[in-house]
Amino acid sequence: MIGTATAQHNAYLKSIGVDEVIDYTQGRFEDQVKNVDVVIDTVGGDTAERALTTIRKDGRYVSVAARDLEEKCAAAGIRCLARGTAFETPRAVFDEVGALATMGKLRIKVEKTFPLAEAAEAQQLGAQGHTEGKIILVVNAAKANRKWPPTAAEARGTRVPYRTARLLVLRLLCMLALARGCEPGVLQAQTTCESLRKPDSSTVSITVAKTVEPDSFRPPGMPDPLSGLPRFCEVVVHLRPSADSSIGAEVWLPASGWNGKLLAVGSGGWGGSINYEGMAEALRRGYATSATDDGHTSPGASFIMGHPEKFVDYAYRAQHEMTLAARRLIHAFYGRMPRHSYWNGCSAGGREGLLQAYRYPEEFDGIIAGDPANVRRNAWALWLAIQTFKDPAAAIPPAKYPMIHRAVLAACDANDGLRDGLIDNPASCTVDFTVLQCTGADGPDCLTAHQVKTAQTIISPATTPAGQVEFPRLEPGTELRWDRLAGGPRPADLFLDQFRYVVYQDPDWDWRTFDLERDSARENAVDRDVDELDPHLGRFAMHGGKLLIYQGWADQQVAPGSTIDFYNSVLALSKDAVPGPDWVRLFMVPGMGHCSGGEGPDTFDKIGLIERWVEKGVAPVRIIAAHRVAGTVARTRPLCPYPQVARYDGAGSTDEASNFSCRSAP
Fold this sequence. Notes:
Layout: E1 2-5, H1 10-15, E2 20-23, E3 36-41, H2 46-52, E4 55-63, H3 70-76, E5 79-81, H4 91-102, E6 110-115, H5 119-128, E7 134-138, H6 152-156, H7 162-177, E8 204-212, E9 232-239, E10 247-254, E11 261-265, H8 276-284, E12 288-292, H9 308-334, E13 340-346, H10 348-359, E14 366-370, H11 377-388, H12 401-412, H13 449-458, E15 462-463, E16 469-471, H14 483-486, H15 493-503, H16 516-527, H17 538-542, E17 546-552, H18 560-574, E18 584-589, H19 606-616, E19 623-629, E20 632-639, E21 644-648, E22 660-664
Parallel strand pairs: 1-2, 3-4, 4-5, 6-7, 11-12, 11-13, 13-14, 14-17, 17-18
Antiparallel strand pairs: 8-9, 9-10, 10-12, 15-16, 19-20, 21-22
């Protein structure tokens, strides 16, 4: 057996049966070892690729840290079992490992044991790195004096869940291999930030690598620095995966207190800038974090015209290349790969997360996808423009929106048994706008006949003359924000750019010529296999990934029904690979607009939810969300996993979530 360590750990490796110790600080291990039968690697990153060169053909590579090695392993004729690989271990194997530990034949070294009150000291010890044994934090004081391993009687009285047992076995392998960075407690930088600025390659260049002092980072164009940021290493990266690519990305690395994880954040609209606010939220929570401009710095989609490779960058490649770069920088800075990787995005960022789950199913352990902007909504938006304001007589003045909203609440607010200013389940809401039609001249409190038809069209699905439904409707409850899609006098650039720059490649394309059946078909053909959502996410589920989707019922620019349709398709298409919804949840948010805002409870800890799901196996079954007024919580409500809805229990304040239960929708 051959092991790698620094010289100070030589004796320890010898004591656990290592025959030859290589000091990795004195030379590259791959230059000293060849034709190895099996490599156990707990470091990952470039160490994984270097380790592959030491293994004989038909040998084995086992890792709890490496990813995306399938092609390289196959090319080398090596069998790889790496992180994300689906496999099952018979329970008998775990029983045997437990028996060996109980009999003392399998020795587990404990570095130090701490009571819960000394958790900070335990973290500090782990943060130093290079410990030889386990650091134990005792939660139950009654068990503080128990020894490890347990006696045979104690072992018989303990049942370890399968997933926990597998984790223990992996950590045991980790200990036996004695690779540095084995424990997730290496929280400090192992090198300087400035050292990350290495010579350029043909596809990657680092233009900035500098240390940023606390509360001093000011995003470009912003007057004030972002508050609450710790000291961190800012790395600005330029990526060129194709000859026509020009992808900007940033990676922020906490100078200390790193939680051992990566959180990548998505963009919005057509991209073009870095999501600094999203990165700041991640950094405040101890994450290494990354974001990209999606391959351009334009205000809209004009960058795509005549540049098909940039279209691919925008759709999914920029986010993937950014993540690979972030992982490499994390390894270079901390000496280890992240133990968990997450994605957090809303709108276009939600779509980006879903595309990453489809195309790179082993890249993220957990994905948060809010109000995912299905690109087919652009045809829907143009259809609404034609129907609602191409003819000026059909346009509804925004001053009438509050009056319409009050009428919708009067018709549907009480459908859930409670009048509280929220439509809990708009899908069950039917509104007859003819009751608002003016009986005489047009006025602020009524709608003309043309406007009645417009209002009815807005809350109706996009349908061809032949009756084919192309896209779901805008839901009742969105009336205060109708100007986004129906305000005129022309469609918003966000939607119009899809057709003038992507579909027709003509900046002068006239939106008034739009035909739903013809142009949606052409749009779908262009988007297919690029930025169109694909619900085949079974490989992400099999990898163990968790997907948290949320959607505002009062979203003014993404039809909520499109997200529900996608969720149902995901469940149907993945049921053979992963039966049931234990890996994916959809939460519909009453009254919430696009990603946030509105009259509903739009504030909840999405990151904490995905962390508990991935790291502790606790799937969200009820989310407590808040609605704030002037920064103060005015109301809390439970969000329920779709298709359940929150229902008032009949007693107590209707502004407190504790008085509501999640129930099946009638």
